[in-house]
Every structure is written in structure tokens, then in C-alpha cells.
Fold this protein.
Amino acid sequence: MENPTYEENRETQIPETTWEKLKPETIHRNNNPNPKEKLLKLNENQQEQKNQEDNMNITLYTTTTCHKCARMKKQLQKSNTPYKEVILEEYEQIKKITAKANKTSVPIMKKGNKWLTEEETYEFLEMLDD
């Protein structure tokens, strides 16, 4: 004997509220992921979102007299890439930032918490042009 379908049984003697509880989409017994897996997936999603935010968190360190800085700002603006500009005015500021970034001159770009090398900076800018 075949098992009756949901609709066939629904029309028989069982009250509707009981059938609502037994609908396939409300039965979670074997479909529920392990709580640890669910937590791991949540953590992975949060990490991915944080990485995306970090990638869009761009800080550009410049000076007012730097022609490379002006070109880089123009390129970021042209590609509608949001960035924060920090203008270094005093020699001590420049010295401090270049030491942190392990560079010798500006422009210096920081993506999230990572100081980009000159090569990485230009690769990033080329990617924006594509």
C-alpha cells in the first residue's frame, strides 16, 4: 500500500493545525545542521565580510607637493573607489609613516591593516582600471 500524500491526508480526519506542524518544510529533524557547523559557517561569513570591508578600507598617505600622490588620488576618484586621505605636512609625520610602512617616500597606501608595497599599490590601481 502506498503512503498517502500530504494533500490527500490533509483532506482526511487529521485536524489542520496538526498538518501544519507536519508540513515537510516544518520538520527539522534531519535537516538541521550541527550547531557547531552553523557557528563555524557564521564565523566564516563574518570573516569574509570583514575581509571585504578591509579591502575597501583604503587610506592614502600623501603630501601636498607629490605629483605621484595627485595621480593616485585622481585614479581612485575616477574609479569611484572610496578612500581616506591623510596629508602629511611635517617631516616628522612623513618619517614616522614611511618607517611604519617600510617605504622611503609617498604615496603610501594602506588597505585595511596592511601596508601595500609599491608593486601591490600599482597592481591594485591597475585592477581598478579593468
Remarks:
- The radius of gyration is 28 Å.
